[in-house]
Amino acid sequence: MSTAIQFEHVSRRFVLHHHRARSFQELVIRMLQGQGNGRREVFWALSDVSFEVKKGEMVALVGANGAGKSTVLKLISRIIDPTSGRIIVNGRVGALLELGTGFHPDLTGRENIYLNGAILGLRRDEITRRLDDIIAFAEMERFIDVPVKHYSSGMYVRLGFSVAVHVEPEILLVDEVLAVGDAAFQRRCLERIDQMRANGTTIVFVSHDLNAVRRLCQRAIWLEKGCIVADGSPEAVVGEYATQSYAASAALAARRELCRHGTGEVTIEEVRFLDGEGRLRDFFSTGESFTIEMRYRAHKVIERPVFGIAIHRSDGVHVTGPNTQFAQYEIPMVRGEGVVRYTVPFLPLLEGTYYVSVSSHDRDSICMYDYHDRLYPFCVLSGAEERYGLVTLRGVWSWKEE
Ligand SMILES: Nc1ncnc2c1ncn2[C@@H]1O[C@H](COP(=O)(O)OP(=O)(O)OP(=O)(O)O)[C@@H](O)[C@H]1O
Ligand SMILES: [Mg+2]
């Protein structure tokens, strides 16, 4: 297999200007005071990044905001140059980059299609031949002769994506802006990307939709502060990335205090998710063994306490609410510290993000000792076998001709 894209020790520096003068007057005053126009800071968006993408591969770039993903795409499409290192790109590049990149605001949609086509090396008649398809896919018939500066962000993305896929690129770059489009358009884009992948187009895909990454890509590269921290199978890389980013989520920490109430006689100190081997995880596949572990502290002797959990899907659907009492699992007494585990040998949930609540209360459900409302998220990745909906029923099909 030959190489489509190669990065050799690529670094890219930006210069950030802090406290820029807001007016000419302010600038003159600063100059007279000998301060210049603010402080300059050198910032490395990418440091010593090396990777290779083979022809026909579909690779995802994942990572937190500011990690350098869009910078990689801009370097591949030659919108910017590396500060050091070498980049080799073999093949025509179609790209849907960050909003606004690649479009001239004063030109109409139609004129921008010609401009983009010309930049990519297409002749005018080649563009004219594709024009109707581009406009139709973008569903932009009504707005195609309006200057693009009047477009909504969704319209930008529609046209940008349509141009990128219709110039018959050998390499397709898609930045996460796809998420700006509505659900129906997103689905059509993902279908189109899938089709192009099947036809052998090399694709670099930036997305925060980790399920799409797992479903579509053969490989994932995780960027963190401008460096590659992992490069491998989507299962492994996405799993690692998701686990780390959940743990680091500041929003979650803020929720911790808000969504907690109870008398405090028993407090739930820690909640963790474990896989079949007892390893810590926030990411599971349908059918895997799944354990919720609660570490508690009883501040006095409590007889026959009940521990429970609830699982909600991210859209608010209450999936289940088991507790030790329903299961007739009696805990005679608690004092001091201990652990309660709830194990599901075969996780029936399908793809999605779920939130776990935990509680500890007395056996008459009158006194709530501690309750954490939907504080603990975990993800289920799409299993290969079943899709659509909430759970797998593990039903068995049969067929007989009569
Ligand atoms: N033109 C620029 N001038 C200055 N700094 C820049 C420029 N472009 C990018 N950066 C900086 O480089 C870093 C990497 O940016 P980049 O857009 O590649 O991140 P990203 O991984 O795409 O993030 P996101 O998920 O938010 O899209 C950021 O800290 C950003 O502020
Ligand atoms: Mg970006």
The computed structural class is alpha/beta
User: What best-fitting shape do the alpha-carbon axes yield?
Assistant: globular
Tell me the quaternary state.
single chain
The count of DSSP E runs of length 2 or more, i.e. the number of strands, is: 18
Give the fraction of residues assigned to helices.
25-40%
**SSE series:** EHEEHEEHHHEHEHEEHHEEEEEEEEE
CATH topology name of the largest domain, in short, is Rossmann fold
Rounded to an integer in angstroms, the radius of gyration calculated over CA atoms is: 27 Å
Let me know the CATH homologous superfamily of the largest domain: P-loop containing nucleotide triphosphate hydrolases
- Placed side by side, the strands forming the largest sheet appear as 5-6-7-3-8-9
Molecular structure report:
- With 402 residues, the protein is α/β, with parallel strands linked by helices.
- The chain folds into two domains: 3-9 and 46-247, 3-Layer(aba) Sandwich (Rossmann fold); 254-381, Distorted Sandwich (Coagulation Factor XIII, Chain A, domain 1).
- 26% of the residues lie in helices and 35% in strands.
- It is built from nine helices and 18 strands.
- The chain has helices spanning 24-32, 69-76, 109-119, 124-138, 153-166, 183-198, 210-216, 234-248, 250-258; strands spanning 3-17, 40-54, 58-62, 84-89, 93-96, 171-174, 202-206, 219-224, 227-232, 260-261, 266-274, 283-285, 290-303, 306-313, 318-320, 333-344, 352-361, 368-381.
- Strands 5-6-7-3-8-9 form a six-stranded mixed beta sheet, sandwiched between helices. Strands 10, 12, 14, 15, 17 and 18 form a six-stranded mixed beta sheet that branches. It has a three-stranded antiparallel beta sheet with strand order 2-1-4, covered by helices on one side.
- Helix 6 (183-198) links the parallel strand 6 (171-174) and strand 7.
- Helix 3 packs across helix 4 and helix 4 (124-138) crosses helix 5.
- The longest helix has 16 residues, at 183-198.
- The chain is globular and about 80 Å long.
- Adenosine-5'-triphosphate binds at residues 14, 16, 43, 45, 63, 65-71.
